[in-house]
Amino acid sequence: MVTEPLSKAGATEIIFPLIMSEMGIFFRHSKTMAKFKGSFKNLALSSVSLIEKEAVVREIEAIIEQKFLQYCDPGIPVQILLRRISRIGFGRIRLATRHPCHYPTGVEMRQEEKEKVFAICLDMIEQENALYQIDYLRRFHWFIDHTFQVDALVYLINELRHNFLGPLVDRAWANIAAVFDHHPPGYC
User: Fold this and answer.
1) How many domains does the chain have?
2) pTM for this prediction
């Protein structure tokens, strides 16, 4: 090619790799990520405030939404899958920035932060369960299985040891039950 092809606004057949590419470009070259040395893993540094971390996540989320996700057609299975997988992906980034393992030994997370992480993990598990509920996405179950959110599930179960009542707790238990419905013993 003599010239670079023009990009097209909207969803195309290669939307998934385009999103992955856009995220890679953002993490490597954006001014926002310069503070984190261009690495997604550096978002977990305890020396960076949660406000700064959340700003990074909101920025990349807005870019992906504006360039790609807003054009997804809810009638096209791959694009439904993509929207939900993207939401799970942003949840993974948020969980990585707030994960309890980043706290020094003996330092406990504030209750407000625990609730935020709980909500993030619950949303991730709900998104995954929703993908299993859509019958015409059955052919994509291999992909959903491949991206299973173990960290989110473990965090929910761990926190439920201490929380016994409330609508969020009921939602969490219902979604954990659904996870086991989708992954029965001997599934793998």
Assistant:
1) 1
2) 0.85
